[in-house]
Amino acid sequence: MYGIQNAISNNNQNLKTLDLSSNEIGDTRVQELGSVLRHNAILTTLNLANVGIGDVGAQHLADALQCNTTLTKLNLASNHIGDVGAQQLADALERDTTLIGQDLASKRIVYVRARHLAAALQHNTALNELDLARNRHEYVRKRYIADPLKRQTTFIALDLTPNRIDPVGPQNLANGFQGNMTLITLNLTSNRIGDVGAQHLADALQHNTTLTTLDLASNRIRHVGAQHLSAALQQNTTLTTLNLASNRIGDDGAQHLAAALRHNTKLTTLNLASNEIRHDGAQHLANALQQNTKLSTLVLSNNKIEDIGARHLAGALQQNATITTLTLHDNNIGPVGVRHLADALHQNTTLTTLNLASNRIGHVGARRLSAALQQNTTLTTLNLASNQFGDDEIQHLANALQQNTTLTTLDLASNRIGDDGAQHLANVLQQNTPLIALILASNRIGHDGAEGLANALRHNTKLTTLNLASNRIGDDGAQHLANVLQQNTALTRLDLASNQIGDDGVQHLANVLQQNTALTTLSLASNRIGHNGANVLANVLQQNVTLTTLNLASNEIRHNGAQHLANALQQNMTLTALDLASNRIRDDGARHLADALQRNMVLITLNLKWNEISDRGATCLMNALQRNVTLTSLELGGNLFTDGVALSEICCFLERNKRQVNHNG
């Protein structure tokens, strides 16, 4: 702590951001910190989340804020500040003219002293974002936040999630922002406002002319609350995004909102996921979409619209000319519903993204959807993950894709695709269809399927992303893909995580990476690489000039493997992101990587989470960052640190590097 105090008190020109979160600082050390903050003229951001500050520490900070002229962001989340501390901070805010963002989340501040913060907000002319997440609802119930909204001229974002806010809170908030002319984002997710609270907010929306985003997810709102919001939407002229996910509006609520959609001309995004909406509700929404000319994104995931609801929405798609994204994930839609959606795709000319994941499309549904894809010329992204597709269903899709001219992204993850299905898709890839991203993660593809895909990639010049994570290709499959990478010049992203690849498979991939000039991202996470495989890849990194992202997480690389990779980093000039999480590299591995960071001036992101690194390893990394000027992200969570000094210095150096990057444009 002394080193940090000294750096602050000497006005270190580089120290503009200081992160001391999750350390055992307490009130006594905060007092020392506050004394130097009074005179510091450089620091702009201070993170003191979860550091054991109580009322006494808050008072010391408040005293400092009244003198400090540069601090603009202060995070005090997850401390033990109570009424007295809140009062002291409020008094400081009343005079402060520089602080623009304050996070008081999880402070356990209750309404007895919340009035002091409210009074301060009425005089403060700088604060524009206030985060009161995870406090107590009395803050809002007693109007201590709502009243200042009427007079505040700087607030643009208010986060009150989750605060156990009951219906009285929204009434006070509504009274506050009816006259507010600056607030554009209000987040009330995971509260308890219910129908009554929704009514109060709806009343305010009829008059408010600034709010554009309203998040009311997980608030126990039912059809009555939806009715009030519907009435507001028919008059409101500014709201563009409404999130009502995880409520209970049901079919009646969907009907009310549908009535609004017939008249509203501003709302572009409506999220009704997880709302117990069935086919009747889907029908009301579908009818509205035939008249609505603005909504572009509709999310109905995790409802129960089933085949009948899908039929109604399909009918709307044949006429609607604005919806571009429709999400029907997990709605128990079967072959009949998919048939109707497929028929709509024959005529619709605006939908570009369709998510049908986690339904039960089946063999018949796959055939109808395949027939539609042969004619549709607008859909670019299709998600069919988790639909129990086997090789037969994939064959139908593959036949369609050979004629389709627009689909660029196809997600078939978590199905039952085996080697035969992979071969069907390989046949498609040989035709050079527009497909640029193919996601086949979590299927049953073995080395034979990998061989078929590899052969296709010898001729394909379009596919840039292939995800085969969590399959069974093994070393032989890795060899097949490696062989084709010697010729393929289109593929830039390859994910082979969790594929039982060992030293032999890595050797084959390494050999080709010395020649391949296209691949930029490679994931080999959760395989069996070990320190020997890391050594092989390290040799490649010394010569490869195109790979920018390498994921080797969970591979038992240990400190020997980290040493090999560190040696390579001292010469490599292209790798910008390296993930070594969960590899047990420990302090020796951290030391080797630290040595590399003193010389490497290319790496931007390094993930070392869950590696059993202690304070000794953190100190090595801190010392390295004194010289390194390019690394901007270093993930160190889940290690064995007890002293926060090195971590704080690391944060300072990373922020310095970020500023330099921003300055250089």
Automatic annotation (TrEMBL):
GO terms for molecular function: GTPase activator activity; small GTPase binding. Coiled coil: none annotated. Pfam families: LRR_6. Keywords: GTPase activation, Leucine-rich repeat, Repeat. The keyword Hydrolase does not apply. One of its GO terms (biological process) is nucleocytoplasmic transport. GO terms for cellular component: cytosol; nucleus; perinuclear region of cytoplasm. It comes from the Eukaryota. This is Uncharacterized protein. The lineage of its organism: Eukaryota, Metazoa, Spiralia, Gnathifera, Rotifera.
